[in-house]
Design goal:
CATH class: Alpha Beta
Radius of gyration: 18 Å
Order of helices and strands: HHEEHEHEHEHEEH
Distance between the termini: 10 Å
């Protein structure tokens, strides 16, 4: 049954994305907030489809941040990308530059104003990232970054990159850690999605002004401790249904 539900979801997701990509073309002539609203509508619709086709619901814990801030999230699946886009109005994401050239999403993400990075660009990439991020903070927009750079399965050892520390120190903005257990239900590179309830938790904000080493230690501890707890909670209370 899980496989059949996943097939139906993937078909519906593909049709929805194609139809909205075509229907949204006139928005390129309008202001950016129109495209932001349209993107959040797409993300919310995808979450609705996951709930009603796959049986994958979600629960949000903690206070959702607003305005100029940095949000550092655990990345276990594609689910939190959809969820954070839906939950955070006028947000921007730090992402791989190549994604801006990936149809049909790329042009839309460029219009919204994402922060592209080249992982092999060294210090030049960091400078460009900081310049773009400062503009977003000045515009009172929340910035989402996945500190590990890629999806990691539940239980995998953490691998945090220094980019988040560069943003933290360069922007002098508060950072909200985010923990999640989405990898229990939507595994990386797995076709089948599982029924259950994903938990996404906004953690206590880390104020600006800490030194790099202390900040990274606190950020990793906050995210990883909560993520382990959420994964255990999901496994123990029967939130994961199906294999």
């Amino acid at each position: 049954m899980g496989f059949i539900r996943s097939v139906l979801f993937n078909i519906t997701f593909g049709v929805l994305t194609l139809v909205m990509a075509i229907a949204g073309l006139p928005l390129f002539l309008g202001p950016r907030p129109w495209m932001d609203f349209y993107g959040r509508l797409w993300a919310k619709t995808c979450l609705w489809l996951l709930k009603h086709i796959v049986g994958l619901d979600y629960e949000i814990r903690g206070a959702i941040p607003t305005g100029a801030c940095l949000i550092a999230a655990k990345h276990q699946s594609a689910w939190e990308t959809l969820a954070l886009a839906a939950l955070l109005p006028d947000s921007t994401f730090v992402l791989k530059r190549i994604l801006l050239w990936t149809p049909p999403f790329g042009p839309y993400m460029a219009k919204v104003g994402m922060i592209p990075i080249d992982r092999d660009g060294g210090s030049k990439t960091v400078r460009k990232m900081l310049a773009a991020a400062r503009a977003m903070i000045a515009a009172d927009r929340p910035i989402v970054i996945f500190p590990e750079g890629t999806r990691r399965a539940p239980g995998a050892p953490p691998a945090y990159h220094p980019g988040v520390a560069a943003l933290y120190r360069g922007l002098k903005a508060p950072v909200t850690p985010v923990a999640v257990n989405s990898g229990l239900y939507w595994r990386r590179n797995a076709f089948t999605k599982r029924q259950g309830t994903v938990i996404l938790e906004f953690r206590e904000t880390i104020p600006p002004g800490m030194d790099r080493k202390s900040f990274m230690r606190q950020l990793e501890n906050s995210i990883e401790t909560a993520t382990v707890r959420l994964v255990e909670e999901g496994e123990q209370d029967g939130r994961v249904i199906g294999q």
